[in-house]
Design brief:
This protein is of the alpha/beta class. The protein is built from twelve helices and 15 strands. Helix 5 packs parallel to helix 6, helix 9 packs across helix 10 and helix 9 packs across helix 12.
């Protein structure tokens, strides 16, 4: 690395991450100011966002603009003035309105189709906000319909990184039920009674705090294709599920490729043949394949592998490169280990689901503490397709 690049790398590493607060709201935009107060004023250490992103329906966007961003009452601007907060980027351009299947603003969430559109919109916003490694996200599930909060939490599981957090804002009684309350004021501020049986309240006496929500981070399980493009919520969930426990692997001899959940990856002939051998042994529910000796010839291993490859592929389909090695009186341990490692690296870098643990390596307790190779997959999840 030259001096200029090294200097730029150090500068980037030393720069503070841009902080982004993401909220979902319905008809109660108060959660924005309540969450902002909890982050910037009541908690220690303070977490002051550089910008706020709000995702909501059309009605929610109208409410937010009128109550938070207008000149009067302008509760967002009031909060910043009252508590002397530094500049925070938040205006109408930071409010994203969910869209229906025809690209029109979604007025409300009323049916399954609206739910799916909300899920896609929330997931896409979180995905975009987490694309830049130099950002730090704090997401709130407090606003909107319950399904919107669920989708926000799930989107953070799919896309969230170690530096990102998820929370729910909590308000002391009886303020949580008063729509006129937006945040605790630094000086007394009367909220008048609006209904029989209500008492006037002093907003300065309210307590606001955040409930931190731990979440499972699945981002590293997602293939690069899902991370890099606009992908729906259901698509990302399916990819995560497949990475966790629904991996299907097919070796296609005719096409010289392996398919992982129907995504094709080309492999050199020797690597494809060795993978086919492990697939066949998995199907037969055989014990791990003993690794060949590294320092001396291992004719017993060569004969066993040739026999099993003939059963798995047919003798005519054993690649010439491997056929030749299996008939040479030379050690093969180093070659096999190297080819399997290269194959795993190719699969991991292909954009397919990350399968760094595709091959299990175990000490099988034979001479010279040899390793054994096997697949970390069930027999019904693998197959070989012959010409």
């Amino acid at each position: 690395m030259n001096e200029f690049k090294y200097k730029k790398t150090l500068e980037t590493a030393s720069q503070p991450k841009r902080r982004i607060l993401i909220c979902v709201t319905g008809l109660s935009p108060q959660i924005v100011t309540e969450t902002l107060f909890a982050l910037c004023v009541s908690q220690t250490p303070r977490w002051i966002p550089d910008e706020i992103r709000l995702i909501t329906t059309q009605r929610g966007a109208d409410n937010a603009r009128l109550t938070l961003l207008s000149d009067n009452p302008g509760w967002f601007h009031r909060l910043c003035r009252d508590w002397q907060l530094p500049p925070i980027a938040f205006d109408a351009s930071h409010i994203e309105v969910l869209q229906d299947a025809h690209g029109k603003p979604l007025e409300d969430i009323r049916d399954d189709q609206d739910n799916q559109r909300a899920a896609d919109g929330i997931a896409d916003l979180v995905r975009r906000m987490t694309e830049d490694d130099n950002t730090e996200i704090h997401a709130s599930i407090a606003g909107g319909r319950k399904t919107m909060g669920f989708f926000m939490g799930y989107a953070m599981s799919l896309w969230g990184r170690p530096q990102d957090k998820l929370s729910h804002v909590l308000i002391s009684a009886p303020f949580e039920s008063r729509p006129e309350f937006f945040y605790p004021t630094p000086t007394p501020h009367v909220i008048p009674a609006r209904a029989p049986g209500q008492d006037p309240l002093d907003a300065s006496t309210a307590k606001v705090w955040l409930g931190d929500i731990p979440f499972v981070r699945l981002r590293n399980l997602l293939p690069a294709s899902i991370k890099a493009q606009h992908s729906g919520f259901a698509q990302a969930v399916t990819a995560a599920n497949r990475a966790l426990d629904q991996v299907e692997l097919e070796v296609d001899i005719a096409q010289s490729c392996v398919r992982i959940n129907q995504q094709s990856i080309a492999l050199p002939p020797m690597q494809l043949a060795l993978l086919s051998l492990l697939v066949w042994r998995c199907q037969q529910q055989l014990p791990p394949l003993r690794a060949p000796l590294k320092e001396v010839d291992d004719p017993e291993w060569r004969a066993m592998v040739h026999r099993e490859l003939s059963l798995a592929l047919g003798e005519m389909n054993i690649p010439d490169s491997l056929e030749k090695r299996l008939h040479q009186s030379k050690p093969m341990g180093g070659t096999v280990s190297e080819q399997l490692s290269k194959m795993e690296k190719t699969l991991a870098n292909s954009g397919a689901l990350p399968l760094s643990g595709l091959i299990a390596r175990s000490n099988i307790g034979t001479r010279n503490r040899q390793q054994g190779y096997s697949l970390n997959l069930q027999a019904d999840r693998v197959r070989i397709t012959k010409p």
